[in-house]
């Protein structure tokens, strides 16, 4: 059984930064891909960024150059550094992985970008 717990969301002004964290209850060393998704009100959940065990990453076009995903296996944690935030980034952000053919989601953390 694996549990994912996000933290780091909050209210930030346009142009500001936030760092989200996703702590896994078990070791993530053996997990290949981990990802961040987000869901804005009235919209479908969308992939924001993904990182594989070897360190390769991919990003949604809307966040390229502004967001950075990273992982620290020793701390069983995945991060999402978000810079130059704008109102369109407002959403609930979820940590996700598929481990041993099962989907795991965190509970979500709210990010609100507003002046």
What this model shows, in words?
With 115 residues, the chain is mainly beta. It contains no helices and eleven strands. Strands 2, 4, 5, 6, 9, 10 and 11 form a seven-stranded mixed β-sheet that branches. Strands 1-3-8-7 form a four-stranded antiparallel β-sheet, with no helix packed on it. Strand 7 (67-72) and strand 8 form a beta hairpin. The termini are far apart. The model has no long low-confidence stretch (mean pLDDT 94).
Let me know the number of strands: 11
Structural class: mainly beta
Total of helices:
0
Which residue ranges are poorly predicted, with pLDDT under 50 across at least 5 consecutive positions?
Answer: none
Radius of gyration: 13 Å
Q: What is the average per-residue confidence, as pLDDT, rounded to a whole number?
A: 94
What's the quick description here?
This protein is mainly beta and 115 residues long.
List the keywords.
single chain, 115 residues, 51% strand
Q: Could you give the topology of this structure?
A:
Layout: E1 4-7, E2 10-12, E3 18-24, E4 34-39, E5 46-51, E6 57-59, E7 67-72, E8 77-82, E9 91-99, E10 102-105, E11 109-113
Parallel strand pairs: 2-11
Antiparallel strand pairs: 1-3, 3-8, 4-5, 4-9, 5-6, 7-8, 9-10, 9-11
